[in-house]
Recover the amino acids of this structure.
């Protein structure tokens, strides 16, 4: 075989592999301190988890990260984009996804928060081949920080805009309408003096609102009831979402803690106490959350029309 022909074949194979993988590897668009942080974070994850792959996605991958302070009324908010990481575990990984996620987030504590999503390689490749656009977008826009090289990513099936819009609309109709109904149940329970029940269904209203946002924007539903994690997943879609539960004062932190504990403590623990005034404040915050969610979800769904 001539050297020229060998070069042509080698180049063709490289291009095919590049098309299949479609994940960049360079962090040169980021400041040096962020590159250093991500290198250190990757080393921690590899040492603690032994993953198949680690992919940076979201605003730090696309160059649209935000570090900002803004004032709304008399309250000052700080908004910092997370490091969003997809940690793909090996096919024979025995630990649960949430166990690995907790290990990563507990060991990687920086001023820039680390937000990890974890699934095994079989799960990821199945959803890529089915056209799940959350993972497809990560494969398209993400940056590979680590690759054990055992199993390649599957070739993604590209959904057409009509398919993506139909899925987003169906998810919105299911989850957002349910969230609004749960908010109504919380108001009813508060009016009847069943405050713990009101807190529980209010948590459900908030949780389902966040799930609606994530599903409309990504088609992906994380397996968590933790509102703190759901907030971190959704804040990249609107800066306004960062101002709903600011936690920038003792009162705000206390209110959010009451809502956070509404899922378990309000149902099962005798020492969970919430007042009518605290519920009223939280209900108004969830109303604000739903108003933002309704607007940005409808805008996102309408945006699929522009792609047709």
């Amino acid at each position: 075989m001539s050297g020229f022909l060998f070069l042509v074949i080698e180049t063709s194979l490289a291009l095919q592999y590049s098309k299949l993988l479609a994940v960049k590897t360079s962090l040169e668009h980021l400041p040096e301190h962020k590159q250093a942080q991500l290198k250190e974070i990757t080393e921690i994850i590899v040492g603690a988890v032994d993953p198949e792959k680690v992919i940076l996605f979201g605003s730090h991958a696309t160059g649209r990260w935000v570090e900002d302070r803004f004032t709304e009324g008399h309250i000052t908010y700080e908004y910092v984009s997370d490091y969003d990481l997809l940690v793909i575990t090996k096919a024979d990984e025995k630990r649960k996804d949430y166990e690995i996620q907790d290990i990563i987030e507990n060991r990687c504590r920086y001023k820039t928060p680390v937000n990890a999503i974890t699934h095994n390689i079989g799960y990821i490749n199945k959803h890529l081949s089915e056209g799940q656009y959350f993972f497809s977008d990560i494969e398209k826009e993400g940056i590979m920080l680590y690759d054990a090289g055992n199993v390649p990513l599957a070739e993604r099936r590209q959904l057409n805009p009509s398919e993506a819009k139909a899925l987003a609309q169906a998810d919105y109709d299911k989850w957002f309408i349910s969230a609004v109904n749960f908010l109504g149940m919380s108001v009813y329970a508060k009016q009847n003096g069943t405050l713990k029940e009101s807190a529980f269904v209010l948590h459900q209203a908030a949780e389902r609102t966040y799930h609606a946002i994530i599903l409309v924007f990504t088609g992906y539903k994380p397996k968590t009831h933790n509102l703190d994690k759901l907030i971190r997943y959704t804040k990249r879609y609107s800066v306004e979402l960062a101002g709903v539960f600011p936690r920038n004062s003792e009162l705000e932190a206390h209110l959010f803690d009451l809502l956070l504990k509404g899922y378990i403590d309000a149902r099962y623990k005798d020492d969970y106490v919430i007042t009518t005034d605290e519920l009223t404040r939280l209900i108004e915050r969830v109303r604000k959350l739903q108003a933002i969610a309704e607007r940005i979800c409808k805008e996102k769904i309408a945006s699929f029309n522009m792609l047709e």
Remarks:
- The beta strands are 53-57, 67-72, 75-80, 83-89, 114-120, 143-147.
- Residues 161-307 form a domain with the Four Helix Bundle (Hemerythrin (Met), subunit A) fold (CATH 1.20.120.330).
